[in-house]
Write a structure and sequence with these properties.
This protein has an eight-stranded mixed β-sheet with strand order 6-9-5-4-1-2-3-16, sandwiched between helices. Helix content is 27%, strand content 25%. The protein is an alpha/beta fold. The protein folds into five domains: 253 residues, Rossmann fold (3-Layer(aba) Sandwich), CATH 3.40.50.10320; 71 residues; 99 residues, Immunoglobulin-like (Sandwich), CATH 2.60.40; 100 residues, Immunoglobulin-like, CATH 2.60.40; 209 residues, Class I glutamine amidotransferase (GATase) domain (Rossmann fold), CATH 3.40.50.880.
């Protein structure tokens, strides 16, 4: 992918230098640092931290345990690791708005700290994450960032998401371990003493959660009212701009300007042992450079730091006079460097990291105030091992800046002239890591960037310049198949053909590894899998080999708000062999855009076709025997909502309607969306079963949907992945029958996951079982039960 001229123009227009400089100057106001913690991208308290960042100049950071890969996707079909990659980039863009450093506890696609799905307790979560692993990463981040304040986003109370509870529990342990010199000294980071830890003094209950206990007493508040005079937005609005980048979660709400808002906090722990009410979260902390010398017990720095703060105040007052801002920032930078050199060893723990941050912040402000139009352009943003690309620095005519190219170890950099260079990627380079540990607002975050060595008023400084897109190294041995998950029905055992759509190197010979109980024939452009006498039910896996080397599936993802992302995973074919009686009749599928149920059912040989908006608006469903409504479809397909009455008439005339789970806010009308009143329960924590192995009680064993065309037994509930279901119905009309019951351990049984009723000559079945996920995971029972639900209504 490359950015078009039109996109480049729009980006430049949306990011004028004057406002970028204004935002950079705000970070110079304070030496206090504040870390917000959460478990998922979007857990950050964006509106609150926007106020202390933009108004008070506090250095912000956010520590997040997972990449959110266990959630849902409101804009695309990425799931699991690929969804986590998209959400990682979304979180980076959200952090950029707030000038906030973003840290991740989860480091790799298979990290135990990942988002494994919903949990109802912190203990369960930490058993899966591994408490030692969680604390090790948490402490590493604290020692790296060195925040004065930590504010957790959620309370550790029953009724709250277990991931949230685990992060809150871990915060109390991590702040103590980070200051303990005996804990993990081999990591090579100096100990750090967090000063305060705050809990929210508000409830986290709502549509999703249901805090069982009241919040703690307020000891202090953060005033979130008001706004930035230059950006012309309230702090709450700026926070929501940040949240709007969480598009896979549908975040970002408009708030009218002028509202008064206060964020109550509870000082739950303090390093000095003092608690109680405070006038401000900044009590007993240094606010500015002027305060720092006294706070750190370093009187030798008083004059230098006071002078630096005075110059910073001048720079803020002189905006947008670029020349005056440059002069003031250069003088402040000189003072800060002198203070760094003069700082005594006992004071360094409190002083050094704050002043190094000021060097970065002042350098960025100097660069922006110089109004330099420097840009890095690469000849390609996707490259394979062994290839060579060209980098060019575009500057105003005649300007030749001093720069160095920064690249990973082993990348061969050759300057070709003053403003251009070649980059040779090593032949054995691994694909780019799509899950970086940290994102910095004042540093380059790409694998390849240039470091500019610049000067202003006698002060040397450096800035790091990235290209407009990140370079992505893709696999040297790549294959694309038209199908990677196969369903082999032992009832008819037709050959399965897999077509090779792409491979690199192009002429590579393709073979399959793995002990499959099938006959496999590979050619340059096709793999044919046939039944033999050894075939039996089960899930089988086979690797794809190119020229004797394991190949990779190279996933390419791109959205306007994220840019291009790539992810290489081992090329593996999954093959489910099962005994499946398919449904009779023609099935129409109304996709909600966030699941691929129609695709997977088609792979199983179901006669299914997608219903377009044009076909929906005609309101004639007579060609179909069954219609399947996908996840969220009532929200994402307005045409469906318009035609819901016609769809109901079609059911009464003999149609078979099956609807997958919806959330209460997905345009679900408890009175009119179903054929009879049906309410989706909330908060969702109370109306879901998170244990994928929870016992399922069949309430009507001889119900038509459970006996044909496949006889559903206890075996069909084995092997389910992540969870049973969510957003169960809480109440329903007596015309619906609850077919099954299930519960998490220690909780009362829930009956609202599979409801079905006859209406006229037809049937409506509403299910909150996460079929779309089970189908993708090739769970046999999900295919067998779905075949029954979709079977033509007689």
């Amino acid at each position: 992918m490359s950015i078009s001229d039109g996109e480049r123009l729009q980006q430049a227009y949306a990011r004028p230098t004057a406002t970028q400089l204004w935002k950079a100057l705000q970070s110079l106001k304070s030496v206090t640092s504040f870390m917000n913690t959460g478990a998922h991208p979007d857990d950050e308290t964006s509106r609150m931290i926007a106020a202390i960042g933009f108004r008070d100049g506090v250095k912000l950071s956010h520590a997040c345990s997972t990449r959110g890969e266990g959630g849902q996707n409101a804009i695309g079909t990425e799931t699991k690791v690929k969804l986590g990659i998209v959400r990682t980039r979304e979180m980076e863009r959200a952090a950029e708005v707030l000038n906030m450093t973003q840290y991740w506890l989860c480091q790799t696609p298979n990290d135990p700290l990942g988002d494994f799905g919903f949990s109802k307790s912190g203990e369960e979560t930490l058993n899966i994450w591994g408490e030692d692993r969680t604390l090790e990463r948490f402490v590493h981040i604290l020692r790296q960032e060195r925040p004065d304040i930590i504010a957790v986003t959620f309370l550790d109370v029953p009724g709250q998401h277990g991931h949230h509870r685990a992060m809150t529990q871990s915060a109390f342990k991590a702040v103590k371990l980070a200051a303990d010199p005996t804990y993990n000294p081999e990591a090579g980071l100096d100990v750090w003493q967090v000063k305060k830890l705050y809990l929210p003094a508000w409830s986290g209950a709502g549509d999703a959660y249901d805090d069982d206990l009241p919040p703690p007493t307020k000891t202090v508040s953060i005033d979130g009212s008001g706004g930035d005079p230059i950006l012309g937005m309230d702090y709450s609005q700026i926070g929501e701009v940040s949240r709007s980048f969480h598009m896979t979660q549908g975040m970002g709400n408009w708030h009218e300007a002028g509202a008064q808002i206060s964020w109550p906090l509870n000082l739950a722990w303090a390093a000095d042992g003092h608690g109680g009410d405070e006038a401000s979260i900044f009590d007993n902390l240094p606010r500015t450079l002027t305060d720092l010398a006294d706070f750190a017990g370093a009187p030798e720095l008083t004059n230098m730091l006071s002078s630096a703060q005075s110059h910073i105040d001048t720079a803020l007052a002189q905006w947008p006079n670029y020349q005056e801002v440059r002069t003031a920032c250069a003088l402040a930078l000189e003072d800060v460097r002198n203070a760094l050199a003069a700082c005594s060893q006992p004071a360094k723990a409190e002083v050094e990291h704050r002043l190094l941050a000021k060097v970065e912040q002042l350098s960025k402000a100097l660069f922006l105030a110089g109004d330099r139009t420097l840009r890095l352009e690469l000849s390609s943003y996707e490259v394979r091992p062994g290839e060579i690309i060209t980098g060019t620095i575009l500057t105003p005519a005649g300007e030749v800046p001093d720069f160095e190219v920064i690249a990973p170890t082993g990348w061969n950099i050759t300057k070709t002239h003053d403003l251009a260079f070649n980059v040779e990627i090593p032949k054995h380079e691994k694909p780019s890591d799509p899950l970086p540990d940290v994102w910095h607002p004042n540093r380059a975050n790409a694998q390849l960037f240039v470091r500019m060595n610049l000067a202003e008023s006698g002060q040397q400084f450096t800035v790091e310049i990235e290209a407009e897109e990140r370079i992505n190294v893709v696999s040297a041995h790549e294959v694309t198949l038209d199908k990677t998950a196969l369903i082999f029905n032992l009832q008819d055992a037709k050959d399965i053909q897999v077509h090779v759509e792409r491979k690199s190197p192009q002429g590579a010979s393709l073979t399959i590894s793995g002990d499959l109980p099938f006959d496999v024939d590979c050619t340059d452009d096709k793999i044919v899998i046939s039944k033999n006498s050894n075939c039996g039910p089960g899930l089988y896996k086979a690797g794809v080999i190119l020229d004797g080397t394991p190949a990779a599936f190279q996933h390419r993802m791109s959205y306007p708000h994220t840019g291009a992302m790539t992810y290489a995973e081992a090329a593996e074919i999954r093959l489910l062999a099962l005994d499946l009686a398919r449904p009779s009749g023609k099935i129409g599928y109304i996709s909600g855009g966030s699941d691929r149920s129609g695709y997977w059912l088609g792979q199983a040989g179901f006669d299914i076709c997608e219903i377009t908006d044009e076909a929906l608006l005609r309101g004639d469903f007579s060609e179909f025997d069954t219609i399947l409504v996908g996840v969220f479809a009532l929200r994402t397909r307005p045409a469906l909502a318009e035609q819901i009455k016609n769809l109901h008439k079609w059911v009464h005339a003999g149609g078979n309607l099956v609807s997958l789970y919806h959330r209460p806010w997905d345009n679900w009308d408890p009175t009119n969306s179903a054929l009879a009143p049906l309410t989706i329960g909330k908060p969702s924590l109370r109306w879901r079963v998170t244990d994928q192995n929870a016992e399922v009680q069949i309430l009507f064993p001889e119900h038509p949907l459970l006996v044909g065309p496949n006889k559903i037994t206890a075996q069909d509930w084995n092997g389910w992945d992540k969870e049973r279901g969510l957003y169960f119905a809480s109440t329903w009309d007596s015309q619906y029958e609850a077919l099954i019951s299930m519960a998490d351990v220690g909780e009362p049984p829930l009956k609202g996951s599979l409801l079905s009723g006859r209406f006229g000559k037809g049937r409506h079945t509403h299910t909150s079982l996460i079929f779309h996920h089970q189908l993708e995971q090739l769970v046999p029972g999900a295919y067998r039960l779905m075949a029954n639900l979709l079977n033509r209504c007689d």
